[in-house]
UniProtKB/TrEMBL annotation:
Keywords: Methyltransferase, Restriction system, S-adenosyl-L-methionine, Transferase. It catalyses: a 2'-deoxycytidine in DNA + S-adenosyl-L-methionine = a 5-methyl-2'-deoxycytidine in DNA + S-adenosyl-L-homocysteine + H(+). Its EC number is 2.1.1.37. This is Cytosine-specific methyltransferase. Belongs to the class I-like SAM-binding methyltransferase superfamily. C5-methyltransferase family. One of its GO terms (biological process) is DNA restriction-modification system. Pfam families: DNA_methylase.
């Protein structure tokens, strides 16, 4: 049977890619960011990609665009920065991004797909409204109002063979009762008795993900280049399938001082561990900054799974062996994007806060690093997709 997918709050298309890899057709996407739309369209050329703020789109516009080709499945990752800072005692009730799930539900009410899947940060299960209601309870109630069975679970990417410690919340709404709304684990990060008894595969490590990529220093690399060595393992063979070259493997233009700082760092060290004379300086000043951030520029262990690839991961991690941050392609490998998937737009942009202050909002787009970090890991999306599509078919 034919299964079609519409992705809203689509970003660069990682969620959609997983469903495509599971055999579904990606018919459309709605995304506000221009560069993310360019990436989505380039990699999903058959899809109808709409660059728009969904809150400004009327019901009639949505029905005109997608009503005749009603998708079986709607995916959505409403921006979640407001939820990210929520906990049991506090939540940013005024953050407008916290209500964008209403738009996800609106599209479902209009198009009536068999399946709706929302992805978000784990803290959404703790987030509360100003009057104390749990946001997740509201989401479930609203989906049930429009005729869906609803299940939710926090999934860890390492359980599905992605070399990254990344936990995300998935809400699955369906018009039929799913016996198993979520896929069974396929991988483990440790060779424990449970691992052996369950016949789980060993989850790849960071080095398993990137060791075959060309070894480049700071300021080196290209947006398009050749492979320099053959694949070293099955994970690399999987992600290299269908591509005869590499894209987006360009190192950042670090200063000599930053490279020297990285050179002092051992695995697990961060900016907080560097010698005093290499401490970060204040912006536009020769004075040392009094602030140190332990989560910034941490050198990753090669034989472990990577920490969560966030939107600003270019400043989070240092390569295990090279004295530089990760490239976009290395981040994409850790996220499980295949090598043929090309990210458009600039590799990096200046601070969005700075652009806002200087009135340069026309330059405020999601750079390649942002697009990679915001994405649902495609292999995790593929596991979710295969589990659901197999049940729909049966």
């Amino acid at each position: 049977m034919y299964y079609s997918v519409l992705d809203i709050f689509a970003g660069a298309g990682g969620f959609s890619l997983g469903f495509q890899l599971a055999g579904a057709d990606i018919i459309g996407a709605i995304e506000i960011d221009r560069w993310a739309c360019e990436t989505f369209q380039f990699n999903h050329p058959e899809a109808k990609v709409i660059q728009s703020d969904i809150t400004t789109m009327t019901d009639e516009q949505i029905m005109t665009m997608f009503g005749k080709i009603r998708p079986n499945i709607i995916l959505g990752g409403p921006p979640c920065q407001g939820f990210s800072i929520c906990n049991k005692n506090s939540c940013d009730h005024k953050d407008p991004r916290n209500s964008l799930f209403e738009e996800f539900i609106r599209v479902g009410r209009l198009l009536k797909p068999q399946i709706m899947i929302m992805e978000n940060v784990p803290n959404l299960v703790k987030a509360r409204t100003a009057n104390g209601e749990l946001v997740i309870d509201i989401v479930i109630a609203k989906l049930r109002e429009i005729g869906y069975e609803v299940n939710y679970r926090i999934l860890d990417a390492t359980d599905y063979g992605i070399p990254q410690i990344r936990k995300r919340l998935f809400v699955v709404a369906s018009t039929i009762k799913l016996n198993t709304p979520f896929p069974e684990k396929t991988h483990s990060i440790m060779s424990t008795p449970d691992f052996l008894e369950a016949h789980l595969d060993k989850c790849p490590t960071l080095w398993d993900a990137i060791s075959d990529l060309p070894e480049i220093k700071a300021r080196e690399g290209e947006e398009e280049c050749a492979y320099s060595k053959p694949p070293q393992n099955n994970y690399q063979r999987l992600l290299r399938a269908g591509s005869n070259k590499l894209f987006n493997h360009k190192a950042m233009n670090h200063s000599q001082r930053l490279v020297a700082r990285f050179a002092t760092m051992m695995w697990g060290d961060s900016t907080a561990n560097v010698p005093d004379h290499l401490r970060p300086l204040k912006r536009n000043s020769a004075e040392f900054s009094e602030k140190t951030y332990g989560q910034n520029n941490r050198r990753m262990h090669p034989d472990r799974q990577c920490h969560t690839i966030a939107a600003s991961f270019y400043a989070n991690f240092v390569h295990p062996y090279m004295n530089r941050n990760f490239t976009t392609r290395e981040g994409a490998r850790i996220q499980s994007f295949p090598d043929w998937y090309v990210f458009k737009g600039k590799p990096t942009v200046v601070s969005h806060k700075l652009l806002q202050r200087e009135g340069r909002v026309e330059e405020k787009y999601l750079c390649q690093y942002n697009q990679v970090g915001n994405a649902v890991p495609p292999l995790l999306a593929k596991a979710i997709a295969e589990n659901i599509i197999n049940q729909l078919r049966s």
